[in-house]
Amino acid sequence: MVDLHTDEASPAVKARFKEGAVRVIVDRDRCEGNAVCLGIAPDIFDLDDEDYAVVKLDPIPADQEQLAEQAIAECPRAALSRGD
């Protein structure tokens, strides 16, 4: 993973992220693998080998925040939360 606060990240990569960016936390005790989040935001979420939701992007790029918020709101088990 590239640290966005160093010179290793390109300006284009840094531009996709902003200070205080949204992070999403998956509560594996609540997740049932319904994949609603994956349907809403396939660039952000995936299912692991045990069919639990996993977050592929951390933090969430600024251009994907609205989809992350929608996935959090629409999770049928309330297994997703913000972790800023």
Characterization of the model:
With about 80 residues, this protein is of the alpha+beta class. It has one domain: Alpha-Beta Plaits. It is built from three helices and four strands. It has a two-stranded antiparallel ribbon with strand order 1-4. The longest helix has 10 residues. It starts with 10 loop residues before the first helix and ends with a strand. The N terminus is likely disordered. It comes from Mycobacterium intracellulare. InterPro entries: Fe-S_cluster_ET. Its cofactor is [3Fe-4S] cluster.
Query: What's the overall average pLDDT, rounded?
Result: 86
Quickly give the CATH architecture: 2-Layer Sandwich
Biggest beta-sheet profile: 2 strands, antiparallel
User: Which runs of at least 5 residues are low in confidence (pLDDT < 50)?
Assistant: 1-6
What fraction, in percent, of the residue positions are helical? 25-40%
Any idea how many domains?
1
Tell me, briefly, the overall form: globular
Number of strands: 4
The CATH topology is: Alpha-Beta Plaits
Order of helices and strands: HEHEEHE
Number of helices: 3
How widely separated are the two ends? 18 Å
Radius of gyration: 13 Å
Cofactor: [3Fe-4S] cluster
GO molecular function: 3 iron, 4 sulfur cluster binding; metal ion binding
Protein name: Ferredoxin FdxD
InterPro entries: Fe-S_cluster_ET (IPR051269)
